[in-house]
Amino acid sequence: MLIGVFHPQDPFAVMPKERVEAILAEAARQEVRLVFFNESGIDLEQQTVQGLTSGGSGEWQEAVFPFPTAVMNIRPWGPRKRTPKELVFRKMVPFTAFLIGDKWEVTRLLSGSAELSGHLVPTLLLKQVETIEELLLEHDKLVLKPASGSRGDGVQALTRSGDVFVLQNGTSRKEMSREELTHYIAGFKKDFLIQPYIRCLTSGGEPFDFRILVQRNGAGEWTVPLIYPRIGQADTITSNVSVGGRTELLEAFLARELPAGRYSLPKQLHDLGLAIAEAVNSHYAFPLNELGIDLAVDNQCRIWFYEANTCPGTLNHEAERAVLAIAYAKYVGTENLKTREAPLRQESGRVTAGLLFDAPPALTELEPYAGVAASLGMPLSYFLYEDIRFRASTIAAHVQEGQEWVRRNIPFPDVVYNLIQQDHKEDVSRLHSSTHHLFLTSTEPKGPIPSSLFMALASREPRLLERVPAYMSPDEAEEARLFIDRHGSVVMKSGGLSEEEETLFIKRLPTHYEVRDSEFVHHFNNADFAVFLGLFQEAGYVLIQQIDSRISGGHPLHLRVYLMKDQQNVWRLMQITPLLALAPLEQPDNPPVIVDWDWLLFREFGDASGEDMDLLIQELAVHTAQVVEASNHRRFHELVVDFALDKDRKLWLLGAEFDGSQDVVHPYDVARIVLPYAKSRIQNPS
Fold it and tell me: Alpha helix locations (H) across 571-666?
């Protein structure tokens, strides 16, 4: 098996020599070949990478290889820095590493867990000096740290003596007045967190914590291969090895420093590390490969959670880390091959199907599926997300017995069609984890394709390129301003690591800029607008030329095309839904209404031209689905494609999302496509 080791610029520059040597040695033991490459070595058209492999005796050889079956992406960049080439490559080949939110987001996620919230250090976003003063009334020492920092960078301690505040960074200290501290906080360019200082010191006064390395193994399951103490220098506040700390063997350290917990703490740390990894990953729709979880133990033997790090440093433990890193990469590659080349499941006898709902369905919704399933000889069940028992591979489902739906405990069906709505409030990200055996008709999570990725995919196809509005991902505020000035009206799509996008509408007016969000309208002069654009640099954003899409008469128009794959594995049209706004878009409370597609065609084009437009939008939508599918290593069979229609009656691509048509198409029409598709995919994967 060929596994890639990738970084956009240079994988060797972001890995210590010890890690390179460790993964090479472990790859040889597990009979895996590694190819090290950067973005310049990727050829999307030929589906090859040019990179370096080890010859086995220390020399490196450069060669061209087919796309790896999986990629170990080292120190991944966030969405803002990814180029169109990397965005497309990530959909074509599965990666092992993903990013999560910052320390503040992770803290908020874990605070909702009854099991874990008691281990969280009370934490606040630092916005003003009054927050510090309030906390110092209860605690004699505080810690300030950047929400997005790593390796101990920027972590500081704060104490107060009378009217003087003392800020400690490493071993250095600086005294400040209240006014100076206020000015210092106002100068922060990023979010900072503030929390009480947890006294976790060795008998020699050295700060320490415990690093729990949690990794997925060769079966895709979480495990803890390493727990070790990290000990910082005396009179400092961090224990990071990268800034002068050291590590020791766990047993010897506990015997010397925490003898009361010598035998109980290892299991407590192990179990808590696993629980935190499970809880963090449950909030993301992708499987994390590893987390470095930092826990502290105070003098009362109470365990506190500090932070969870993706891509953690393990300077003195590279060989141990490499074992599961290679094993999991093999697992990801193997699962990728199964998805591409194998049926969902090979079973003798009848294929069983399940319907997954977010609320108990009405009988009128079930009957079409039941009728189609009966005609195909497919036993059918339905259930809710909370009915699934992932560990036991069973479901408390409703199955049809005669004319009744009876609740039964059943094994996982052969295939499941997910009808949960995108806006369902319950977290269902575990559905798309590769660590269970619930087989979905689509392994791609529902939701919009990030705009930067969609535009990059469409721009690679000449047939679609002419339908893509002008767009850019600016590096500087001035670059963005020039783009906005050139096009007059643009859409800004911004997003963080999770790539959940916020949409803003920006218009260049003669004397100022107008920015509209879902609730408010803002007006900026040139100077204020530059500051506004600068606020989005960290989140990253893409600017897209706004197409003035209207019908004759001036009503704003949006076209949605719903597609599904049939039992021949061919994309087919399910519905074209025109959405018409009855008032200008600028007016609040202006929800669009659905109008009939045939009526709109006749009104705008007449008979002959209307037929041509109907064929064109179908052709473009199907081609878009094919392009997205060809660049995606995950399986999906439903897509919604969005179009605009300008004053010259030209169609423009606006975006796409992974979702079904059950909200706009009769359940029978969905059932007669999706159930034969599911059955054919199991029995005949080609």
Answer: 597-630
